[in-house]
Every structure is written in C-alpha cells, then in structure tokens.
C-alpha cells in the first residue's frame, strides 16, 4: 500500500447519467434487442435475458472420447431484473420500501425457479469496472440444472463442519463476529455485515442473518425490512468511501434447490457476498494477478482495517448530504 502507484488509473464512474434514455434497452418503454418493447413499469421489472448464457433446451454433447475431455449439458434460464424505472439511481439512493420490493422479488424468484433448478444465482454487477455495460440499476438471475463450482464447495464445507461440530458454520461465525466486533461494519436486530476474516478483496463484505435461514424465501417480513435497511447502510458507506458510485459484484448464496428441496440442508446458512475492486481511491483498483493467480491471494490491508474505515463512514449518502436530505430520502 505504501508503494507509489504507477499502474493503470481507472476512469471514475459517470455521475451525470440521464434519468431516462429512449435508446437504453432497460428503460421503461424502450425497445430491446429482440424487438420487444418494455412496459412503462414503475417499480421492478423482470424479463428473460436477450443474450442468455444458459438455455432450457441446451443439447447434450454426448459421451467424451477420453477421460480428460468430458462435458455435460448445462441447461437453465437467465433473467434480468430492473430495480427501478430511473437510470440515475442506485440501491443506496432508493427508498427503503423500494429496496424491500427488490428483496421480495428476489424471494419470489427462488420460489418460482427453485422447484425446477438446483441452483438459482442472483447477482449484481455494478459499474463498468465490474463489467456492467448498462448504468440502469439492475441485477441478473441465472438458474441452472447443475450446482456450480462455488456453491458446490460451500455446500461441502458447510456440511463437513456440521458433521464435525454439530453447528451451522456461518451461524456460529456470525455469533463470533458479533461478539468480537473488530470486523463488523454495520448491524441491526436481524442482520450483520462484516469484512470476513478471510477477505482478500480490499473492502469485501459478507451479509449474514442472525437467525438460521436457508433461503431468501424463508425470510420473515421483519427480516426483509431489516435487510433493506442494512443494505442501504452498507451501500451508502461504500459510496461514501471515495464519494463515488462504488463498483462491486455481489450475489446471494442459499441452500440449493431443485432435488435438494427434498433433502435436509440444515448445514446451510443464507448469506450474500460483496466483492468491490477499489483499493486506494476511486481510480485505483486491486489487481488479482501474478502470484495471486498462481499461488495465493494477498491482502492489501487487513480485514480489521477495512472494517474500521467503512464503519466510521457516515450513514447519510454524500449526494443526499449535499442536497440536505436524510438517510431515509431518495434521489429526486
């Protein structure tokens, strides 16, 4: 961190995004690539991805001709969910009721797609730095006929901990972090946000419920309201860190679905990951290269340092503060 930076300087995110752009395929009333016209929606809006990575009728490649060359059909569906009709707003600037609507829709997606697919991945790539090609507030949902690598590893480790210790690993982890406090960023009655003990990205965080919960669809109304509140607090702090619309990739991990709905998945605990790339400023990011790709990830600052910096930031968004609004407010 002390070494003078002579590497790549990132372009800061665009601040003057138009509220509605007729050529933006995510805006209300706009025409998308497949020719369909979006309704003039006023809340969330869901549609099938026009360029899906997974398709329900993907062909089976058949048996391989060598043990080193094996493949199976990857079937599924890909959807896009717009959070809000405005392009110039992000989750931390939305009203709590609007964020809760997003959460409710996420839970409905688990109920809709879960019975058919073993894994339903909800994720948001925010900012061009994280590969997002459209500034309109949205996330993606990929439901797959198989359990992908990361959740498969998570399932195995949580299951092993359950068998060895008789406790749900992430429930115990949340309890420990709540007592220790040094890596806690924000917390409320139902949720806890920490910079994980094992964090490798500079301001990486993990969002955990205090109660044992398997999936988003299992959350109570009170837990969803509290989730909206803590998401707003966390994302406001992220934006306030460098006073920029903070880029990140985030996603939810919950107990697998599909055939796993008939199994005991008590070893699982619902949680969300946030992976932001920024390190020193709004224009200097962390690069996972060289030794980190080939040997072991390295920390640029400790989880405790990152948590303290985030924890000490105000909970009023810098844009709202400049306009004299409270943390409950919404961009106008």
From TrEMBL:
Q: Specify where the region named Disordered lies, as residue ranges.
A: 1-38, 312-332
**GO molecular function ontology, one term from the record:** zinc ion binding
Q: Which GO terms describe its cellular component?
A: cytoplasm
Q: Does the keyword Nucleotidyltransferase apply?
A: yes
- One GO BP annotation here? galactose catabolic process via UDP-galactose, Leloir pathway
| Top EC class for this record | transferase
Tree of life domain: Eukaryota
Q: Where's the Galactose-1-phosphate uridyl transferase C-terminal domain? A: 157-320
Give the pathway listed in the UniProt entry for this protein.
Answer: Carbohydrate metabolism; galactose metabolism
Q: What is its EC number?
A: 2.7.7.12
Kindly identify the residues recorded as the active site.
138 (tele-ump-histidine intermediate)
Q: Identify which cofactors the protein needs according to its UniProt entry.
A: Zn(2+)
Alphabetized, the UniProt keywords read: Carbohydrate metabolism, Galactose metabolism, Metal-binding, Nucleotidyltransferase, Transferase, Zinc
- Asked if the record carries the keyword Nucleotidyltransferase, the reply is yes
InterPro entries for the chain: GalP_UDPtransf1, GalP_UDPtransf1_His-AS, GalP_Utransf_C, GalP_Utransf_N, HIT-like_sf
Q: Which reaction does it catalyse?
A: alpha-D-galactose 1-phosphate + UDP-alpha-D-glucose = alpha-D-glucose 1-phosphate + UDP-alpha-D-galactose
Question: What SUPFAM superfamilies does this protein's entry cite?
Answer: HIT-like (SSF54197)
The record, for Gene3D superfamilies, names:
HIT-like
Q: Which Pfam families match?
A: GalP_UDP_tr_C, GalP_UDP_transf
Q: What are the Galactose-1-phosphate uridyl transferase N-terminal domain coordinates in residue numbering?
A: 1-148
Basic and acidic residues: bias regions: 11-22, 312-326
Q: What does this protein do?
A: Plays an important role in galactose metabolism.
Membership in a protein family: Belongs to the galactose-1-phosphate uridylyltransferase type 1 family.
Identify this protein by name.
Galactose-1-phosphate uridylyltransferase
Task: Supply the source organism for this entry.
Answer: Paramormyrops kingsleyae
